[in-house]
């Protein structure tokens, strides 16, 4: 697939190099020609100097043949404008924009523009490590109704089946991380010590879910 990236900062350069290593063709746009130094001599993609939301610049980068577009410059407005041009003018299906302002990111997300809110994402990652209770979602749907979260399961759940965990907590177990590797559980999968349980739940039930995970199953029948 051909991918066009706007912004050759550290994120854009790393993204371009990773995509190329995975066999995709890449064109990266930046106003500052010295920014392309971050790509290194091994990068074989296109380096396009210009404004990332300018139609001629995008066409030079191969936007008409692109399957994806990433706007990762340092400007929120530029990223949103470029993302909209890529999607609405050139019909690129997979589009994402980096946004620093988390409030604006939520607005654009609800308007159908996939965003990565850098500040909010970093804060969420830190909170999940400081407060491993599952209160901060790994993923939140645009309507704010459903979330995917890592929830701490009390030791009392060890030895019980996933089916019982789901029934008593009102969640759906999306996957379990066991010994550092993700696995898709079945209803007969048994919770083991050290498992990280990732569940899908309604956002208005987070408190109830965390309480159920903390207290363990009702009774002690296995």
From TrEMBL:
Keywords assigned by UniProt, alphabetized: Ion transport, NAD, Potassium, Potassium transport, Transport
Listed Pfam families: TrkA_C (PF02080), TrkA_N (PF02254)
Protein name: Trk system potassium uptake protein TrkA
Keyword Transport included in the entry's annotation: yes
Molecular function GO terms recorded: potassium ion transmembrane transporter activity
Domain RCK C-terminal stretches: 133-215
Gene Ontology CC terms, in alphabetical order: plasma membrane
Domain RCK N-terminal: from-to ranges: 1-118
């Amino acid at each position: 697939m051909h991918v066009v990236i706007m912004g050759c900062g550290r994120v854009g350069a790393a993204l371009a190099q990773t995509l190329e290593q995975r066999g995709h063709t890449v064109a990266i746009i930046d106003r500052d020609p010295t920014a392309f130094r971050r790509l290194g001599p091994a990068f074989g993609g296109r380096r396009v100097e210009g404004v990332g939301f300018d139609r001629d610049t995008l066409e030079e980068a191969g936007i008409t043949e692109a399957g994806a577009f990433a706007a990762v410059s340092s400007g929120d407005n530029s990223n949103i404008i470029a993302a909209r041009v890529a999607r609405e003018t050139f019909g690129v299906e997979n589009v994402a924009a980096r946004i620093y302002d988390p409030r604006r990111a939520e607005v654009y997300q609800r308007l159908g523009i996939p965003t990565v809110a850098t500040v909010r994402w970093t804060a969420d990652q830190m909170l999940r490590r400081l407060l491993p209770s599952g209160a901060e979602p790994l993923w939140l749907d645009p309507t704010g109704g459903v979330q995917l979260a890592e929830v701490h399961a009390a030791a009392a759940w060890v030895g019980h089946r996933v089916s019982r965990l789901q029934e008593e907590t009102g969640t759906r177990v999306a996957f379990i991380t066991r010994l550092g590797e993700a696995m898709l559980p079945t209803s007969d999968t048994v919770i083991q010590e050290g498992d990280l349980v990732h569940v899908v739940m309604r956002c208005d039930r987070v408190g109830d879910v965390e309480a159920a995970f903390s207290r363990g199953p009702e009774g002690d029948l296995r």
